[in-house]
Design goal:
Length: 107
């Protein structure tokens, strides 16, 4: 069993674009999420990785997430994301599934 905290500055989450997913209601998710900062907590226990208290800051988009990755790369979790513009604010809860290398995001 291992656990810890992490902080990553200026990075990219590949295979999905959280802002596009939020703006399209989950129907369009392809792309990349470029972020300023990503923080969270990790717990690895018996081959399962739990990532919790995730905070993503990416310009006008902010998100929180919790997810689990099983020993075969199966992904499950939730993302609560918000995009603020001068004229509106969009907020949604998106569900994560699929595999780490091919995540599926749905509203």
């Amino acid at each position: 069993r291992m656990q810890g905290e992490f902080r990553i500055e200026k990075g990219v989450l590949g295979n999905f674009d959280l802002t596009r997913a939020l703006q399209s209601g989950g129907s369009q998710t392809t792309g990349r999420t470029i972020f300023n900062e990503l923080t969270g907590q990790l717990l690895l226990d018996k081959g399962t990785l739990q990532i919790s208290n995730v905070a993503i800051a990416a310009g006008a988009m902010n998100a929180g997430a919790a997810l689990t990755i099983d020993g075969s790369g199966g992904l499950s979790g939730r993302v609560v994301a918000e995009v603020k513009t001068p004229t509106q604010s969009l907020r949604a809860t998106l569900n994560l599934s699929g595999k780490v290398q091919d995540p599926v995001i749905r509203k």
